[in-house]
Every structure is written in structure tokens, then in C-alpha cells.
Amino acid sequence: MGNPEPLFLTKNMVVEDVRGVGQNSKHLRLQVNGFGAIAFNKGELRSQIRPGYTVNLVYTITEDHYNGNGKLQLKVKDLEINN
């Protein structure tokens, strides 16, 4: 408690799937290197990212409790498209 949340940087992650989520596709859901990732308020990047592209991600690791299932996901703080 009181410690900052650790941030991770991973370069050249391969995008396996990408889609907009939320109202008006405001957010971005990615599948990268076998991990699910959510990028809040980054939906405008959807048209710039395709499966097979690589991205550099700055993220935290969280647990997603969607539909009652708990699984780890990457919560993207920033991303850079390499392609």
C-alpha cells in the first residue's frame, strides 16, 4: 500500500487481433503475444493498427473479471506503432 503501480515496457509485441470496444469504440482491445490488452481512450488508433504489426507497449498488469472469469490482462498506458 502506498507504493506506485509498476510500469512495464515491452518492445516489438506482435498484434494478433485488434478491435474497438465501448461506446463509439472509444477504447482499444488488443491481443499481443498471446496476452489480452486494453487501451482506454485509444480507440482512434484502431484504423492504424493491423494484425501482424508490431507495437511497443507501456503497461501495468491487472486482473480482468469480465463475465465472471478472472484472467490477467495488460492495461496499456501508452503505445507506439512500429509499422
> Structural class from helices and strands?
mainly beta
What is the mean pLDDT?
Answer: 93
The CATH top-level class label: Mainly Beta
Strand tally is: 5
CATH topology: OB fold (Dihydrolipoamide Acetyltransferase, E2P)
* Percent of residues in helices: under 10%
Largest sheet, strands/sense/barrel = 5 strands, mixed, barrel
CATH architectural label: Beta Barrel
- Broad shape: globular
For the structure shown, list the relevant keywords.
0% helix; 83 residues; globular; OB fold (Dihydrolipoamide Acetyltransferase, E2P); mainly beta
Overview of the molecule:
With 83 residues, the protein is mainly beta. It has a single domain (8-81), classed as OB fold (Dihydrolipoamide Acetyltransferase, E2P) (Beta Barrel), CATH 2.40.50.460. Helices cover 0% and strands 57% of the residues. The chain is built from no helices and 5 strands. It has a 5-stranded mixed beta barrel. The radius of gyration is 13 Å and the shape is globular. It starts with 7 loop residues before the first strand and ends with a strand. The model has no long low-confidence stretch (mean pLDDT 93).
Topology:
Layout: E1 8-21, E2 27-32, E3 35-39, E4 54-64, E5 71-81
Parallel strand pairs: 3-5
Antiparallel strand pairs: 1-2, 1-4, 2-3, 4-5
Quickly describe the structure:
With 83 residues, the protein is mostly beta strands. Helix content is 0%, strand content 57%.
